[in-house]
């Protein structure tokens, strides 16, 4: 996998390898300052932060209704009983949390965003495939999904028109993301205690009112796999952002601590709220969920607690989306498009926020089905991407870290095994195993009980192709393949 701590640290403490593009400007630990640059290497004199801050950075954004709804759909739409749904939710979340920790640990040694590290497995220009997909899903897709859930909460709480509620939510999100890394971390830190206290009380009340012994509605193994896929899709949706929030740490920072606080932050927050969502669905009618999913969830709470929970849901949506816009903008700049602007990341974040607002307007109706499909699509591309990333790290064990750092910014570096493997893995898995309202693959069409195995098959197929490609093309080409 990645290089040992002592090896990487000595490399970065020495003079940087030639060709490494360093982020310009002075930023340091200033919060009320716009972060300069884009997806470049963070200079060592700008490094700061501690691993513990990753706990609230990855907990706060999951304290929102989008997380709750993952559990709701397991019972209400996939036909599972509470215990079946809870198991699927915990397993799916655990897998995505482990990979979150592993990827986060790479940030300090490389000093660049996750989608720049991704260039090792895909090549400089081939990396436009995952970076572009992440820019789209993070900066626009997830932004729209979470803005809608925050809008429903604010609308239910204040009875203001939904479009006005959406404007309020979006403006706050864009402002925080525009300023950048330090304000994002600070926002998550101060939002954490408010969100944690309110949601812990609400979740306790929901569990007390739920009916965990209620029978299933024929979900079976298919419903279990669909729920597991949705939970994995939600947790793993953070993976392409992982090192974005650890690249400012000093290279000597403990990788184990980074992996632990990142992974546990995602796992605890997602598993807790998703299981609470499943519990709430045992006593909520499907019509109520379809009409106003947020109101259906808070309808089980006393008025004072329901109002606080709605406020927390709106705040949680903002906490999630400042990460989505920030990382979406970084992914766009990591595609290799040169923007001659000192504040290029901030400007891209602003543009994404405006586009996401328009998309969110169209999502104020028919939310449940759109959300279910979006979660599964997330897993469809991220699982093959993860296969390339981890297989590439496996094959690069022992390689010179200085050479690897240079490859990240070498426009002539190619590794076509990455994008080709990912595209084939996505194509085969979606064609055979996708199980959505818009498209049903060959296997679930003829064997409905199978559910949705797209992300599992996509990972395996991509890994096999990538490893086989380099097995026959020669391991040495990984160190510096040229096109």
> Tally of extended strands?
0
Quaternary status: single chain
What is the level 1 CATH name? Mainly Alpha
Q: From N to C, what is the helix and strand string?
A: HHHHHHHHHHHHHHHHHHHHH
Shape: globular
Low confidence ranges = 1-11
CATH homologous superfamily assignment: Hydantoin permease
Task: Please tag this protein with its features.
483 residues; mainly alpha; Hydantoin permease; 21 helices; globular
Word description of this protein:
This protein has a single domain (50-479), classed as Orthogonal Bundle (Hydantoin permease). The model is unreliable at 1-11 (pLDDT under 50). It has 483 residues and is an all-alpha fold. The protein contains 21 helices and no strands. The two termini are 25 Å apart. It is 67% helix and 0% strand.
Task: Give the SSE layout.
Layout: H1 5-13, H2 53-59, H3 65-76, H4 82-104, H5 107-110, H6 114-117, H7 119-122, H8 128-158, H9 162-179, H10 181-209, H11 220-236, H12 255-281, H13 286-291, H14 293-298, H15 303-333, H16 344-362, H17 367-395, H18 401-407, H19 417-433, H20 442-446, H21 454-473
Q: Care to give the gist of this entry?
A:
The protein is mainly α.
């Amino acid at each position: 996998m990645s290089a040992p701590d002592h090896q990487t640290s000595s490399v970065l403490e020495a003079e940087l390898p030639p060709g490494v593009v360093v982020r310009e400007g002075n930023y340091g630990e200033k919060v009320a300052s716009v972060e300069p640059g884009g997806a470049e290497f963070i200079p060592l004199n700008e490094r700061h932060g501690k691993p513990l801050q990753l706990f609230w950075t990855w907990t706060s954004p999951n304290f929102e209704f989008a997380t709750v709804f993952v559990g709701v759909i397991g019972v209400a739409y996939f036909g599972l009983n509470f215990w079946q749904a809870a198991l699927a939710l915990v397993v799916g979340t655990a897998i995505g949390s482990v990979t979150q920790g592993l990827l986060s640990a790479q940030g300090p040694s490389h000093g660049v965003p996750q989608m720049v590290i991704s260039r090792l497995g895909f090549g400089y220009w081939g990396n436009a495939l995952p970076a572009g997909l992440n820019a789209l899903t993070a900066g626009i897709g997830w932004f729209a999904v979470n803005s809608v859930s925050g809008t429903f909460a604010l609308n239910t709480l204040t009875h203001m028109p939904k479009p006005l509620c959406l404007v309020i939510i979006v403006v706050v999100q864009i402002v925080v993301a525009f300023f950048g890394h330090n304000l994002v971390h600070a926002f998550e830190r101060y939002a954490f205690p408010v969100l944690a206290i309110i949601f812990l009380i609400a979740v306790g009340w929901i569990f007390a009112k739920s009916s965990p012994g209620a029978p299933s509605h024929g979900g079976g193994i298919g419903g279990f796999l669909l729920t597991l896929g949705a939970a994995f899709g939600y947790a793993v949706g953070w993976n392409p952002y992982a090192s974005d929030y650890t690249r400012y740490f000093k290279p000597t920072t403990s990788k184990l601590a980074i992996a632990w606080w990142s992974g546990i932050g995602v796992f605890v927050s997602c598993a807790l709220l998703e299981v609470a969502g499943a519990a709430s669905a045992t006593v909520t009618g499907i019509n109520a969920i379809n009409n106003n999913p947020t109101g259906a969830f808070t309808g089980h709470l006393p008025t004072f607690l329901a109002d606080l929970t709605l406020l927390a849901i709106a705040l949680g949506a903002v906490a999630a989306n400042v990460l989505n816009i920030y990382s979406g903008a970084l992914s766009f700049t990591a595609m290799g498009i040169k923007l001659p602007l000192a504040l290029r990341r901030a400007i891209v974040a602003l543009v994404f926020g405006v586009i996401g607002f328009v998309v969110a307007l169209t999502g104020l109706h028919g939310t449940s089905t759109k959300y279910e499909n979006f979660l599964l699509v997330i897993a469809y591309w991220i699982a093959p991407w993860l296969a390339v990333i981890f297989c590439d790290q496996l094959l690069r064990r022992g390689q010179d870290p200085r050479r690897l750092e240079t490859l990240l910014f070498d426009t002539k570096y190619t590794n076509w095994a990455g994008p080709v493997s990912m595209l084939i893995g996505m194509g085969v898995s979606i064609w055979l195993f996708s199980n959505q309202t818009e498209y049903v693959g060959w296997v679930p069409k003829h064997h409905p009980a199978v559910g949705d195995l797209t992300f599992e098959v996509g990972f395996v197929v991509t890994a096999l192709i990538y490893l086989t490609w380099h097995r026959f093309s020669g391991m040495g080409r990984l160190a510096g393949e040229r096109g």
